[in-house]
Amino acid sequence: MLTIGAHLSCAKGFFAMGQEMLAMNADTSQFFTRNPRGGQAKEIDLNDISAFLNLMKKNNIQKVSAHASYTINPCSDKEETRIFAFETMADDLTRLTALNGQYYNFHPGCHVGQGTEIGIAQIVFLLNRLLNMPTNTTVLLETMSGKGSEIGSTFEEIAKIINQCNYAEKLGVCMDTCHIYSAGYDIVHHLDDVLEEFDQKIGLKRLKMIHLNDSLTPFNSHKDRHAKIGAGSIGTEAIIRLINHPLLKELPFILETPNEFEGYKAEIAFLRANYG
Ligand code: FE
Ligand code: FE
Ligand code: ZN
After folding, report:
1. What is the Cα–Cα distance from 271 to 276, expressed in whole angstroms?
2. 68: CA distance to ligand 1 center in Å?
């Protein structure tokens, strides 16, 4: 069965988010660990979490994913910003322990002129400290579009981070379809080749999740503008091929399309109808 969900808010609690998931016929979801622009995370409510875990179990929901805030930058040229990124991620991982083994997805960051080598070394340094902590969460590196000085827009860069990390077994990858298409991986015409390259450079066993988005900007534009399914340069046909690809079809798919509840519900129904 297709495992699909959307990026939702957990501002009203995890149980409320779970009910929203069920109402849109989703069996996975993603949420921000705190306000996306950073700031304080809400106190963990263990009753709410256990109600949510029960709801997951009853409805056979395997995984949800937390998304780190956009404002942290693990490879900033400023030390205090890197320390802030580490502290935020460490706090997130500690809180996520209560959710019993979910995913935690983050953007590798922008090297802001320091160059990729230094940027990668700083990300690895952060991850080595972070994953040294006891955690039951799998940390996912998200593939990026390569806007500005973003790291992680090539499979080589993602592979370097994983291979240099002392805790590679705790790391996985989340492939964002909008981002990789913008980064120059042609998933519309050459999906098989792209997946083969992913397998050679990173290893498909590391691929844990897909962010399923269309792209407002053309192929190889190095921009990051998500579009609704079928309303962008990737298009409906390529997206249907992608969710049905034998190497991808068992993975959880998360919509980060510009939608509210009704829009997500309609996209989920459409994708389920075109699966299998
Ligand atoms: Fe993201
Ligand atoms: Fe994404
Ligand atoms: Zn994006």
Report:
1. 10
2. 8
